[in-house]
Amino acid sequence: MEHLERCAWFLRGTLARAAVRRYLPWVLAASMLAGSVLKELSPLPESYLSNKRNVLNVYFVKMAWAWTFCLLLPFIALTNYHLTGKAGLVLRRLSTLLVGTAIWYVCTALFSNIEHYTGSCYQSPTLEGVRKEHQSKQQCHREGGFWYGFDISGHCFLLTFCALMIVEEMAVLHEVKTDRSHHLHTAITTLVIALGFLTFIWVLMFLCTAVYFHDLSQKVFGTLFGLLGWYGTYGCWYLKSFSPGLPPQSSSLKQDSYKK
């Protein structure tokens, strides 16, 4: 337990910092551009992480939103209830997950449609021999063909959005103070470690996507959608009164106390 406590303490002091929330978007964007240039000019040798069937990609990235949703749900519920004690405010903050789900669904559907309407079916990966009789990606693959269209990087979008959402929600840890005797201490500590581990995976796999997969333009659009999803919510809408709101801060807690 001592090792877990130290790990949670380190993550609290790292991911909950305002500097991380401020600079992580820039770090992700710069890493995407640098990795893409490296991929074009001096490709890295093949590795385990360059294989799409690696464990992290198959069991984590492919279900990135599900992992993020399932860990943020109890984290937001416990930390926000611990600070406010109001079920209504907790439900309001949990609605950020519904907003995130809507963003994930709309963007992935949009990417799929763009790939469909800009694509064609080919006989080989070298884009030889167009199969005009196959008008959809599913039909093309079913008949052994290769579909090629403008494939906006869903990995870049989702990993950017999930990582930024996690660090935004972990800002609440500045206000959450519990000791080992508190009944929520173990649960919150475990969730902090799990979310920190998840953030590390998202950033690592984002870097792998940058240096191994997709064209530059596809990664630029994917990352841009992820940044817009984050900024449009946490940077704009959640600052308004008619929104799920930001994680509780000292100022908002004092205002609620005064209103009582």
UniProtKB/TrEMBL annotation:
One of its GO terms (biological process) is phospholipid biosynthetic process. It is a multi-pass membrane protein. InterPro entries: FIT, FITM1/2. Keywords: Endoplasmic reticulum, Hydrolase, Lipid metabolism, Membrane, Transmembrane, Transmembrane helix. It holds the Pfam family FIT. Signal peptide: none annotated. GO terms for cellular component: endoplasmic reticulum membrane. The chain crosses the membrane at residues 58-78, 90-111, 146-167, 188-214, 220-239. Its main location: endoplasmic reticulum. GO terms for molecular function: coenzyme A diphosphatase activity. It is found in: Endoplasmic reticulum membrane. This is Fat storage-inducing transmembrane protein 2.
